[in-house]
């Protein structure tokens, strides 16, 4: 989910509130019969709200100037819960920006999503990796082009503090645990902070931790089998990941810096950890590339806006692998699905699959794209540029967020809930069984 529910909830409430708009039937285009006349306005719906919704609308400025087609994007905080009902009820938009492949599959199963037009498929073949195309493909039919992206598995820290402590960025998982011990020793306080609170989506930051460790400990093949349901949550590989994450998140000597004990992780809003890292009360936190935007709204201990830079107040490194030099990462993104093939809709789809659209979005700030032909130099910070280059690198082993690929009863159901229960003290074996039971619902 480049800017899915998780990203939306990260933005400060004051900013999100002013731009969140409810979807309405009169604001949406209906599902066309296909091949209709060109429309003057193409309406898009999605879960992106706040300033990023404004940026998305602005990304179509040059397109509108060239084609005369107006594009109106409307954000909805409850998009994930509303879009299927609207589509099945005959109230679909022209285009939907879908944050989860699992939700995209549900929409495809309604029979209302059109197969991607030839021009869109050609653009995706030119601009994205086969993996990204695969996430928008079902039963050998390609439906939805990728849009933006986010890279997960970052550890945010203070380069200035690292310099003061005489420590360096770790290159392996064991080195990271040793670094944690060093920070605890030098400060006398926990090194890590974490927040799992995210309204109805509470628990998802914990799933990112587990996904990172499954990928790093057991590799992409096991990760893929886990996503497919062939490796169960109760299998040893997944318990190993929980045990590894538990070395940090269940250790009262390691967490929850600035907030309280282990259980306070569940009551801490996941975006709030940026403030703790910025003011120095928390040395390390695990969060995706999109946490970068939250550092614009917090202050350092000196009362200044933190500088996000390799030698600045805050920066981030990729959670290291078990062996040095491994670059196995997970992330998210959103996909562009259409409900009619009107001429104007098709032109918008083709534009959204282009490097030009990616460049306009990236240049607006705060986001990245996995479009291989987009210009990473347009990213709004050095950090986002580095993240985008990782996403564009053919040598990077990338996997989509596992919970977003799993059935919704698990991915955003029992898995999320299980992480909250685990932090609250429920034993690992029971949690794993409870999560697996989500497949039976």
What does this entry look like structurally?
- This protein has 441 residues and is α/β, with parallel strands linked by helices.
- It has two domains: 5-151 and 330-403, Periplasmic binding protein-like II (D-Maltodextrin-Binding Protein, domain 2), CATH 3.40.190; 154-328 and 413-440, Periplasmic binding protein-like II (D-Maltodextrin-Binding Protein, domain 2).
- Helices cover 43% and strands 12% of the residues.
- It contains 19 helices and eleven strands.
- It has helices spanning 5-10, 13-19, 51-58, 61-67, 79-88, 101-109, 118-127, 130-135, 159-165, 173-187, 204-228, 236-249, 273-278, 343-352, 355-364, 382-392, 402-405, 408-423, 428-436; strands at residues 41-46, 70-75, 95-98, 137-138, 141-142, 145-151, 154-157, 285-287, 315-318, 328-338, 397-400.
- The strands form three sheets. Strands 1, 2, 3, 6, 10 and 11 form a six-stranded mixed beta sheet that branches. It has a three-stranded antiparallel beta sheet with strand order 8-7-9. A two-stranded antiparallel ribbon has the order 4-5.
- Helix 11 (204-228) crosses helix 18.
- The longest helix is centred in the middle third of the chain and has 25 residues, at 204-228.
- 50% of the residues are buried.
